[in-house]
Design brief:
Largest sheet: 10 strands, mixed
Shape: globular
Distance between the termini: 69 Å
Oligomer: single chain
Structural class: alpha+beta
Strand content: 25-35%
Helix content: 25-40%
Radius of gyration: 27 Å
Length: 751
């Protein structure tokens, strides 16, 4: 397999909003007398490529190749194109989009990437193991895609489309030779992550006329692109706006996604495509970026065209298999589970993202918060491992990490900190627990050790930590940074210890354990102050402080009753509503379920009044939001003045509620490779549960039916999985260890 280091481009100028450069096409025609046993090619496209053989698009997925910092890793894809060849003339065609090679957004450092350039590619072909040709033999021409930008939009002029450009029998004598391009400095790698694949297609469920065009509602938010089929006048210009919401039912807006100072032209181009018709039946499918949306607004068309056009929402995500399912007899929970699943899908394009409409960045803290529910719902460990390689590569010599990966320099000085850097520890550990594969731990262990040293250097004289982002987007009360950072630093040390023990690094494990002990002692002395009998915590007396301190073991066993009482008091002060941010959300429901009660946890989660998860369902939420904000109306009737908190209607980092349901309602608690504790907890809100999790050994299936004071459980256990039974508080069962195959367990309520 050849990774060519010779890169080539068409027009060497960089595409900008002020200077549109068409996306380049490349083709090479070659002749073979007989089809070889093996004809293989490797390709790297910087930024996005599409590959064709004899007119057939064979690209392994959308938005190939894998997105990375090209000065860290350069990803190649491999194809066996033998099945597509003919004896005689054959043609390889390539189309390139800009990807992250020339984004203009003056945020996240995208406009200052040192690799900014025109899109380029490297290519190598070999037949039966013998090298044939590379990218130097291709010729190039501009395409009908007159502009494309990763963070903005695409412009497509169907009049410029070149028919059969990638097929045999085409005259390319007027095309130009390719030009050499700069070789990126990153390590060359074959991409092993799952490609981005289509998983659904949706037609509009409703259409109406807005104040500037026609609005199409697809019924669900997601990430992807669209296929638009339309007939119109030659030169007719239409515009397609996409968004998760409609302002008062009148027009789409995306300006709520931007809280930075962008020029009006930049903001207007976000998820706003420009299409020019050819006069013939046209098909438009923008493919060099992706959009997060539920609604499409099309302007520049007539009522007749609006009625007859054919538009399809193509939803895509990494093409990994599902790894679990959860349903119960509470429809609010089922709807929220679907919101989690849809948010996971639309925010997993190559790696976990923070939103598909605006940033499209790999925020590390978001994935650290979501990784358990991601692994419960999807077979995504391999994709997470590939991303971890990029995270390790992004670590600086001093041990620091950026808040987003990939990046250049943005995210080291702001946007990171313990809760975000925790991705280096949380992902390898959860991958190991859920799959038994320790490859991620072995990869990250040296980087974990380096980070622990860096983390210690950030300690204050009192032993506390405060150098990162706080509990993100709390509804009302802010918990001091020194509280959340110190707690997460302790968690990092604990996870590091477990990881080191798992791969036989005993000395390092002891170091991590010692560090954890030091952090706990400092936190107890400076924050909890247990020597003061029920002493006031002042600004630290928040729901997040108590819930996180309980979950991460900052209290001693004998102190838990007092700590739980304080938490209950704070919850009462909130009126039984959410009053914390995403960091606390990761642990809050577990703490309440374990120590207060499942009824109390679900009452808060499913409250009909704001702020709660269920309250957002009344606004038509189909994907989790970035923050909890209230408005009267639904997603098609959002107020004109959108609150600042509405940065995105599609985030995944609140999704640990899904893991909570698996672990507590279904009782599937995976605590180590192949080890499950079956320990369901019961609530008056949920009587019946059906859940599955797919292991490499087979599928674990749980069905629970509660009838009054008894709960009948049927558990199917695959061979090689150990399941022990643990009765919930106030219930009893005679079962202890479950056997391979079908099992029945009955829990009886005590008293």
């Amino acid at each position: 397999m050849i990774f060519s280091d010779q890169f080539f481009c068409g027009d060497s100028r960089v595409c900008t909003l002020q200077r549109h450069i068409p996306a380049p096409l490349f083709r090479h025609s070659f002749h073979i007398d007989t089809i070889p046993a093996s004809f293989e090619v490797t390709i790297c496209g910087l930024g996005v490529y599409e590959l064709f053989v004899n007119g057939k698009r064979i690209t392994k997925g959308y938005l190939a190749p894998y997105r990375s910092n090209p000065n860290h890793f350069v990803y190649y894809d491999h194809y066996d194109i033998t099945p597509y060849l003919d004896a005689g003339e054959n043609v390889v065609g390539i189309a390139l989009g800009n990807g992250i090679m020339s984004s203009e957004m003056p945020v996240w450092g995208a406009d200052k990437y040192p690799w900014r350039s025109a899109p380029c590619f490297a290519f190598a072909a070999e037949a039966d193991g013998k090298f044939l040709f590379d990218g130097s033999v291709f010729v190039t021409h501009g395409s009908e895609v007159t502009f494309n930008d990763w963070h903005c939009t695409e412009s497509i002029d169907a009049r410029l489309a070149i028919k059969n450009w990638n097929d045999t029998g085409f005259d390319d004598s007027s095309w130009e030779k390719v030009s050499p391009a700069r070789e990126p400095s990153g390590e060359k790698k074959l991409c092993t992550a799952e490609p981005v694949k289509e998983y659904d297609r949706r037609k509009p469920v409703k259409m109406w006329q807005g104040e500037r065009g026609f609005i199409f509602d697809f019924g669900i938010s997601g990430a992807g692109t669209y296929l638009l089929k339309i007939k119109g006048e030659c030169g007719q210009q239409i515009e397609v706006y996409t968004s998760d919401c409609v302002i008062e039912g009148k027009k789409i807006t995306n300006r709520n996604l931007y809280c930075w100072s962008l020029t009006d032209k930049m903001a207007d181009n976000v998820q706003h495509d420009h299409l020019t018709l050819s006069g013939k039946p046209d098909e438009f499918e923008p493919r060099f970026t992706f959009r997060g949306f539920r609604f499409a607004e099309i302007t520049g068309i007539t009522q007749e065209q609006a009625q007859s056009l054919d538009i399809t929402f193509i939803l895509f995500s990494n093409g990994f298999a599902t790894a679990g399912s959860f349903r119960c007899d509470n429809e609010q929970i089922n709807r929220l589970q679907q919101c989690v699943i849809q948010s996971d899908r639309s925010n997993f394009i190559h790696f976990p993202l923070d939103c598909p409409q605006r940033e499209k960045n790999g925020w590390t803290g978001d994935a650290a918060l979501s990784c358990e529910q991601l692994l419960l719902n999807f077979d995504c460990a391999n994709s997470l491992l590939v991303w971890l390689q990029n995270i390790c590569k992004a670590q600086r010599d001093d041990g620091s990490l950026p808040g987003i990966v990939p990046t250049h320099t943005w995210g080291y000085d702001w946007g990171s900190g313990p809760a975000w850097d925790n991705v280096l520890f949380e992902l390898p550990w959860r991958i190991y627990v859920y799959t038994g594969n320790d490859e991620a731990i072995k990869l990250c262990a040296p980087h974990m050790l380096k980070y622990l040293c860096y983390m210690q250097s950030k300690s204050s004289d009192s032993g506390l930590y405060a150098y990162g982002l706080e509990d993100w987007l709390p509804v009302n009360v802010h918990t001091p940074l020194c509280v959340t950072d110190t707690i997460i630093c302790r968690s990092i040390a604990d996870t590091a210890e477990k990881c080191f023990w798992a791969v036989g690094m005993h000395q390092e494990a002891q170091y991590a354990a010692s560090l954890s002990k030091e952090i706990k002692q400092a936190f107890r002395k400076e924050i909890l102050r247990p020597h003061e009998y029920d002493g006031p915590l002042g600004a630290n007396d928040t729901v997040a402080t108590h819930a996180m301190a309980i979950y991460y073991g900052m209290y001693e066993e004998e102190e838990l009753p007092s700590a739980i009482y304080k938490l209950k008091c704070r919850i009462k002060q909130t009126g039984g509503h959410i009053d914390f941010g995403a960091l606390c959300n990761r642990v809050f429901w577990r703490v309440v379920g374990e120590h207060i009660g499942m009824d109390e946890a679900l009452d808060m989660m499913l409250s009909e009044t704001y702020p709660s998860f269920a309250a957002l369902l009344k606004n038509g939420m189909t994907t989790l939001w970035e923050g909890f904000e209230y408005f009267e109306g639904d997603m098609a009737h959002v107020p004109a003045e959108i609150p600042q908190g509405f940065w995105s209607f599609d985030h995944h980092f609140w999704g640990d509620i899904s893991a909570f349901w698996y672990r507590y309602l279904a009782g599937i608690r995976i605590d180590g490779p192949g080890r499950v504790e079956f320990a369901p907890m019961f609530s008056e809100r949920v009587k019946n549960v059906c859940a599955e999790h797919v292991f490499a050994e087979g599928t674990l299936r749980v069905e629970i039916d509660r009838d009054g004071n008894s709960a009948h459980c049927r558990i199917s256990v695959p061979r090689g999985i150990s399941v022990r039974v643990n009765s919930p508080r106030g219930w009893a069962s005679d079962a202890a260890e479950l056997v391979c195959g079908e099992n029945e367990v009955v829990f009886s309520k005590l008293g």
